[in-house]
Write a sequence for this structure.
């Protein structure tokens, strides 16, 4: 999310004495104008003519962004007309036929068919219902789309519509037991009843006659009923040849949800906000089904033959009794199936399967002719499967087909996310990229000659765009601007539009030819207002230092021009969810970036590091926090303090730290378990007990509380609260549906019971996990600044 439409009052939030070093900025204007910073373009996309670039922008500082456009011939941004907005196509929504002569897309619940040569577009449906997910099928002769969860086809040549599936909630009704199949007792009773009662005998004669006549009557059209039971249908996908439908049935778990009280309401009554489940809640299950209409056949894909499906996770070695029981049971692990990815002609489909314990990912080949499945690839991790493009149980991996026999995918098997192909007929794999860097995004070009990839090969804190021959070779670098890029290739793939930013310069729009050596042309120039640009925002130096185990840690350093008398220092700890902040582009933590500038201007040395668990550094770094959050991720912070003391002249007795969410958690662990290292800490919306957090994130790293209690016990700050020595500030939104305010309340009670004095808590009654109100941001940063000024100086 860019700064457009957001409010930054960090600098205005400070006491008057703290604003002297920022006198060139009008604090009054900051307070009055939420968009004082400037505005960056967002959501760039191409028109289907490959000449027009659309983007959201707000240079006039209006209430909200407007849709702007430029053309390749005229790079002057202009507001779109109503007609342009109505006709605009989102490229991600377009699906092409096999030879790319036609395309189809859904817009506002209706289906549209376009011609790539003439750019003419036909509207196929105009209904009050929502039609979605259109694709070409039946060898490109028909469009198939979803309506009310069923598949329908529209024949391109005739315009005829036909329903293809007939999903029904509930179970198939039981068939009555035929007389021929009854046992001896039932046969005798049936015959005795007919011999005894005239009415029964007469009705049977009439029924037999009616059934015989119906059997010889002309049949009316019908569709096989596909019963879903009590499960939820997750959508259906048809093969390109129209012969096979694959669909997934989801059976929800029955976990108890949290409830978040909302105290400040229009009604005047306390109202309840429905929350999430907690880690370890019963999970749902997915069944992958196959329907072949011509054979009137429905069956499910069974994972029982997948290699390693009965493996016991390695962490059970710490629980001998549980391990012994699991080994005896030899049970299948639960598996989540992704949507199928069909080859162009429909001769194969590849499905990604993930074990629900997060330890395995399989690529499964399905042959619709033989109905057999084959495991093409297994990626195993004793910690958890992850990394760019590798998917997970909530996200499908980055993959597809280069031709009818070759499937491409990303994997972290070497320790870094790289690009691979596999020949499905032989099982031969080929690595297309390699090295100690990450392929962070990949897509196959329309002509299937090149992959277009984003990597951090140049530097972990830089992102660049490359094109790579589809059969491998040396990637050709397309972008050269230092920082980061977010690219969108034109439909004809001749031009690149991208957003670029640098450490102290927010995102702007650029355009260049899709050729190595091409120069980028800047399109927008409003990301920094004149007033914002008038201050010399620091370009923090990206450095490295050695951790105690010899690992290389990357960090951003903000050095003061003149250090304060006590030579104080502050560590900013970024949040998690898998990200990094020691990089060379405009940070999503732009408020903290500005606050760090202020701290440096007031004589503090400031660092923020990409501690263990951060993105951008490969598998070992990513999983360095497995089963112990607050372990290496915290000692990396302690080693950063040592580096600042040894190399930057910081006074070890005057060091503080702050951060939100995971950064708040690390702040607590630092204040509780690293005695003497940190004199003060501000923990913002922190997790205090990981057993209270959500399942998707936490179970990756710590497994489940009832299966791996060791991991939760050593990772949760609430168990270490007795170690608090320095000064602690806790700030938390009271309607936080992510990290519930309950976490802060529980920790407060624990600190009260322990008789701790040097702490305070501030609840924000109308704020969720990410604050929205300028007044709340203002209050929070005033408190953080006051904490550091009074304890570190």
């Amino acid at each position: 999310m860019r700064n457009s439409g957001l409010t930054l009052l960090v600098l205005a939030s400070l006491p008057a004495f703290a604003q002297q070093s920022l006198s060139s900025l009008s604090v009054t204007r900051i307070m009055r104008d939420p968009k004082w910073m400037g505005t960056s373009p967002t959501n760039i996309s191409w028109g289907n003519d490959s000449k027009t670039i659309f983007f959201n922008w707000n240079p006039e500082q209006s209430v909200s962004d407007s849709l702007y456009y430029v053309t390749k011939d005229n790079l002057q941004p202009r507001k779109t007309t109503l007609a342009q907005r109505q006709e605009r196509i989102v490229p991600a929504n377009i699906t092409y036929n096999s030879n790319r002569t036609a395309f189809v897309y859904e817009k506002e619940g209706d289906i549209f068919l376009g011609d790539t040569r003439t750019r003419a577009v036909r509207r196929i449906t105009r209904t009050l219902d929502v039609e979605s997910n259109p694709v070409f099928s039946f060898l490109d002769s028909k469009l198939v789309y979803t309506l009310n969860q069923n598949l329908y086809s529209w024949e391109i040549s005739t315009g005829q519509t036909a329903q293809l599936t007939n999903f029904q909630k509930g179970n198939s009704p039981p068939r009555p037991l035929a007389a021929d199949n009854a046992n001896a007792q039932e046969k005798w009773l049936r015959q005795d009843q007919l011999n005894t009662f005239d009415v029964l005998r007469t009705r049977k004669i009439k029924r037999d006659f009616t059934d015989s006549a119906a059997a010889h009557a002309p049949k009316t059209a019908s569709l096989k009923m596909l019963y879903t039971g009590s499960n939820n249908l997750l959508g259906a996908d048809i093969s390109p040849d129209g012969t096979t439908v694959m669909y997934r049935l989801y059976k929800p778990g029955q976990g108890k949800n949290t409830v978040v009280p909302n105290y400040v309401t229009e009604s005047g009554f306390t109202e309840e906000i429905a929350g999430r489940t907690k880690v370890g809640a019963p999970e749902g299950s997915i069944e992958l089904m196959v329907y072949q209409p011509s054979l009137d056949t429905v069956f499910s894909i069974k994972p029982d033959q997948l290699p390693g499906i009965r493996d016991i996770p390695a962490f059970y070695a710490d629980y001998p009794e549980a391990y012994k029981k699991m080994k005896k049971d030899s049970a299948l692990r639960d598996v989540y199936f992704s949507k199928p990815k069909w080859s162009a002609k429909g001769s194969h489909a590849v499905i990604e399967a993930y074990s629900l314990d997060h330890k395995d990912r399989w690529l499964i080949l399905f042959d619709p002719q033989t109905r057999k499945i084959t495991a093409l690839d297994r990626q195993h991790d004793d910690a958890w499967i992850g990394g760019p493009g590798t998917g997970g149980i909530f996200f499908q991996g980055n993959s597809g087909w280069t031709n009818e026999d070759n499937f491409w995918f990303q994997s972290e098997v070497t320790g870094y996310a790289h690009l691979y192909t596999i020949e499905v007929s032989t099982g031969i794999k080929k690595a297309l990229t390699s090295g100690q860097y990450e392929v962070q995004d990949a897509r196959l070009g329309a002509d299937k000659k090149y992959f277009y990839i984003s990597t951090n090969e140049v530097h972990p804190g830089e992102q660049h765009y490359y094109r790579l021959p589809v059969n491998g070779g040396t990637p050709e670098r397309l972008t050269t601007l230092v920082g980061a890029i977010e690219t969108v290739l034109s439909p004809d793939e001749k031009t690149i539009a991208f957003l670029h930013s640098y450490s102290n310069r927010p995102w702007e729009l650029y355009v260049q030819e899709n050729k190595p050596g091409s120069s980028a042309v800047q399109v927008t120039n409003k990301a920094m207002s004149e007033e914002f640009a008038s201050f010399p925002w620091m370009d923090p130096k990206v450095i490295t230092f050695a951790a105690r185990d010899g690992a290389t840690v990357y960090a951003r350093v903000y050095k003061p021009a003149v250090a304060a008398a006590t030579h104080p220092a502050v560590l900013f700890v970024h949040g998690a969810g898998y990200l990094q902040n020691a990089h060379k582009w405009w940070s999503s933590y732009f408020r903290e970036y500005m606050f760090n500038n202020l701290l440096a201007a007031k004589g503090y040395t400031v660092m923020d590091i990409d501690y263990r668990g951060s993105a951008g550094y490969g598998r070992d770094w990513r999983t360095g926090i497995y089963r112990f959050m607050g372990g290496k991720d915290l000692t990396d912070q302690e080693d950063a303090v040592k580096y600042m003391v040894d190399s930057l002249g910081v006074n070890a007795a005057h060091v503080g730290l702050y951060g939100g969410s995971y950064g708040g958690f690390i702040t607590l662990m630092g204040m509780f378990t690293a005695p003497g290292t940190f004199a003060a800490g501000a923990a913002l919306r922190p997790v205090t007990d990981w057993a209270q957090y959500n399942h998707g994130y936490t179970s990756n790293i710590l497994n489940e509380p009832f299966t791996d209690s060791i991991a939760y016990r050593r990772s949760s700050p609430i168990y270490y609260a007795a170690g608090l020595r320095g000064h602690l500030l806790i700030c938390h939104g009271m309607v936080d549906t992510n990290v519930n305010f309950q976490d802060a309340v529980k920790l407060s009670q624990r600190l009260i019971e322990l008789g701790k004095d040097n702490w305070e808590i501030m609840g924000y009654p109308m704020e969720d996990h990410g604050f929205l109100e300028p007044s709340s941001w203002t209050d929070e940063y005033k408190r953080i600044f006051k904490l550091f000024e009074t304890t570190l100086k």
In short: The two ends are 35 Å apart (CA to CA). The chain has a mean pLDDT of 92. Residues 198-216 form the longest helix (19 residues). The longest strand covers residues 372-380.
